[in-house]
Specification:
single chain, alpha+beta, seven-stranded mixed β-sheet, five-stranded antiparallel β-sheet, 22% strand, elongated
């Protein structure tokens, strides 16, 4: 009896389980078969989505914190052409054209584009955004994006550089310090429900974007702007091809301004010439001419070969290395002092001193002054210049190199040479980065580079006194003089090589001037190069007056008090009646 009851219970239980299995199987068949497409859509809707949180690119600022480049949140005007009836496109375009500053015909074409999204205008002003909203046009939207802004426009554009369309640095500081400026994008992850909307009860995670850091330059934005204005004017007025200027702090070597004429606006890539270097001040070279004579005189003084009063009988020309070297003016043999040779820029007199110094010694000093080597400034693409090793010299090389032909430098290298003299014989490698502030807040101030002793302090001070004679009566650089201040400097005029045959042009020149202000207590060094001014103008005609404008401005800008002493007069010549009649009493 009990066995039969147990058997009936087992049979009933089995029947129930079998029924449940049949129901479950039926549901599986329905889900996997008949309702498969619908359920797949629901499953797809119930998912997790993510979107990037854009980091703002960091700032580039000048030495006083003035922004030179920054990224701002801006609004683009967009449209969904599928929401705009074709017969209303012309009306939409007419209403938007005035607001956006875009021709109506262009807008009509944009509104007829395939797809659901088209940009009508980028980075518009808040006023435009408000105006578009007030129009109430269905299918026209505003979209938040970012824009790289350069408030000073072309000022310092050669240094700052530009970014690519994807926001990555392409040139200049933007390129060299892209890792500091770029920042790190964040991400927002959230659940989406079956209707495709964000699920407020779902899991949401947010990784905040980390904005880029700040790069502070040694550049003074106000000085940079002024230098570029003066330079552009000088190039235009002289009919020159182009020009460059470097301004350094005399003691630290920091770059206060580094300008190239016709500088492009980083916000407008089309303003940059396609075939020109982005930063000619460190990427292009020129033969310096007589400004390079500072090495010959500094070396000769340092070695005890000359003093400022050393007398040299200087003929009008000199046979040397198989070539005949002339002074820039015809003259009979004249007895110059060493100072006079420098002040009147006698090529023949300079070579007489170079011969006494010796080619090996001269070569070694040229290297010490940094010629033929990059300065190490934190700018991409810097040229080392051109300075042949002695093994590459021809017989005539030493007849050209000491007077600044056959050697090529950048304007920054030229400024660095004179910074050595301004800084009592110690060359400090120029730097353009003042500090870097990382995105996490840590600031690193650029350490002062170790200086290189090139000549003694006594030699440097003596050279400055001799260079003052260049800007006084009888010198070639009188137009560089700044009233109220003692100025030391040197003019230069170098012939440009003809493209073939190793010959030099008789009309195309590089005109240069490099100087120190004030000479008795140096604060600034200014180097100027003007490329091929019209009518064969010389360094004293174009580069020297430009130096005077820039140095005069910076002395006032930095509130440097006028010099309290007068330049020491060093005779330029041993005078005779004929010398006085030819050159005037001031040279005696």
């Amino acid at each position: 009896m009990r066995l039969g009851q147990a058997h009936r219970r087992l049979t009933a239980g089995f029947a129930v389980v079998s029924a449940l299995l049949v129901v479950i199987a039926g549901q599986l068949v329905r889900l996997q078969g008949f309702d498969r497409a619908g359920n797949a859509q629901k499953a797809a809707a119930q998912r997790v989505e993510s979107e990037p949180l854009q980091a703002l690119r960091g700032q580039i600022v000048d030495r006083f914190g003035v922004p030179l480049a920054y990224t701002a949140n801006v609004q683009d005007i967009t449209a969904d052409p599928t929401m705009i009836p074709p017969d209303q496109r012309a009306d939409y375009a007419a209403q938007l054209s005035v607001l956006l500053g875009v021709p109506a015909a262009d807008l009509v074409r944009a509104l007829a584009s395939p797809g659901k999204g088209v940009v009508l205008a980028r980075a518009v002003s808040p006023t435009v955004v408000t105006g578009v909203h007030q129009l109430g046009l269905i299918g026209v939207f505003t979209q938040t994006t970012t824009s790289r802004e350069y408030p000073a426009q072309s000022t310092g554009g050669n240094i700052i550089g530009a970014v690519r369309s994807d926001g990555v640095g392409a040139s200049g500081i933007e390129y060299a310090f892209n890792d500091v400026l770029a920042g790190t994008n964040g991400e927002l992850t959230y659940a989406v429900d079956a209707t495709g909307e964000a699920n407020p009860s779902g899991l949401t995670t947010r990784v905040n974007a980390i904005n880029g850091g700040t790069v502070a330059l040694t550049i003074d934005e106000d000085l940079q702007y002024t230098v570029q204005q003066y330079l552009d004017s000088a190039v235009a007025e002289s009919g020159a091809k182009d020009g460059q200027v470097a301004v350094l702090d005399a003691r630290t070597g920091q770059v206060l301004a580094l300008a190239s004429s016709g500088c492009a606006n980083p916000a407008d890539p089309a303003s940059a010439p396609a075939d020109a270097p982005l930063n000619p001040a460190v990427q292009t070279v020129f033969e310096p001419g007589s400004v390079n004579k500072v090495v010959t005189f500094a070396a000769a003084l340092d070695k005890g070969v000359i003093t400022p009063q050393t007398r040299l009988v200087v003929p009008g020309d000199l046979a040397m290395g198989g070539v005949i070297v002339h002074d820039d003016w015809a003259h009979q043999p004249v007895t110059y002092t060493a100072t006079g040779v420098l002040a009147q820029s006698s090529n023949v007199g300079t070579l007489l001193i170079a011969q006494q110094l010796g080619s090996k010694s001269w070569y070694d000093y040229e290297r010490k002054f940094g010629v033929g080597a990059v300065t190490g400034v934190e700018l991409p693409g810097e040229s080392a210049g051109i300075f042949p090793s002695m093994s590459q010299w021809s017989d005539s090389s030493f007849a050209n190199l000491p007077i600044g032909q056959g050697v090529a430098v950048t304007v920054l290298q030229l400024a660095s040479m004179y910074q050595t003299i301004a800084n009592d014989g110690v060359r400090v490698p120029p730097r353009v980065i003042k500090s870097i502030t990382r995105s996490y807040g840590a600031t690193t101030v650029t350490a002062q580079p170790s200086g290189v002793r090139v000549v003694s302090a006594k030699t440097a001070k003596t050279v400055r006194t001799m260079l003052e004679s260049v800007t006084l009566d009888g010198g070639t650089g009188v137009r560089a003089a700044v009233p109220g201040y003692r100025i030391a400097g040197k003019t230069g005029t170098a012939q440009q090589p003809v493209s073939s045959g190793g010959q030099y042009s008789s009309s195309a020149n590089w005109d240069t001037f490099a100087g120190i202000a004030p000479a008795d207590d140096p604060r600034f060094v200014v180097a100027v190069m003007i490329d091929n001014p019209a009518h064969g103008l010389h360094g004293g005609d174009v580069a020297a007056p430009l130096f005077q404008e820039i140095a005069g401005y910076e002395l006032r800008h930095a509130a440097v008090a006028p010099t309290g002493s007068t330049s020491k007069h060093v005779p330029l010549m041993v005078c005779s009646e004929q010398v006085v009649a030819t050159y005037g009493r001031s040279v005696c």
